Amino acid sequence: MVLNNIEKLLKKYENGETSLKEEQVLKNYFSSDTVAPHLESYKPMFEYFLVSQQEQFTKDVPLKTKRLFNYKWISVAAVVVLMLAVYFKKPVVNSYEEYAYGTYNEPEEALNEVSRSLAMISQNFNKGASTVGYLNEVNKGTSTIGYLSEIDKTTSIIFKK
């Protein structure tokens, strides 16, 4: 009779329909030594529930809140910096004169400067081109290597087994 009651309670427990009193009856039954052999698989689960029910948390929980940085002050500082920049900005008298570095008033001076710059570029370019002249010799050497493959073909025909 008790075994039938325990089996009914187990079915209700698996469906989540038991009350706290019924669950306590199940815990008491499975903590005893007289458990039916076909219900032995439930015993470790209910023993775990009894052990975990007795556990307590013993560590202290800090209740202090961390102080958050107030981002309003960043925006205030940015506004102050911008205001100081606007206040102390140097007035521009003539914007063309500020950016007119390297310009010439006389066309002859500009022409002489351009021709001198182009002559310097040409001279350096010629130096670089003269050092690359040996590549023609390399090309001649690589073209003679092509003849070696012809010799290899003929020797393979002669010594063919």
* Helix percentage range: 55-70%
- Beta-strand segment tally: 0
Average of the residue pLDDT scores? 80
* Spans of at least 5 consecutive residues with low confidence: none
Distance between the termini: 99 Å
Beta-strand portion reads under 5%
Q: Which term fits the overall shape?
A: elongated
Class per helix and strand makeup = mainly alpha
Helix-strand topology string: HHHHHHH
Question: Would you mind describing this structure in some detail?
Answer:
By secondary structure, this protein is an all-alpha fold. It has a domain at 2-54. It is built from 7 helices and no strands. It has helices at 2-14, 20-31, 43-54, 72-87, 95-98, 107-131, 134-158. Helix 1 packs across helix 2 (20-31) and helix 2 (20-31) crosses helix 3 (43-54). The model has no long low-confidence stretch (mean pLDDT 80).
Search tags:
mainly alpha, elongated
Which helices and strands, and how do they pair?
Layout: H1 2-14, H2 20-31, H3 43-54, H4 72-87, H5 95-98, H6 107-131, H7 134-158
Helix pairs in contact: 1-2, 2-3
Summary, kept brief:
With 161 residues, the chain is mostly helical. The chain has seven helices and no strands.
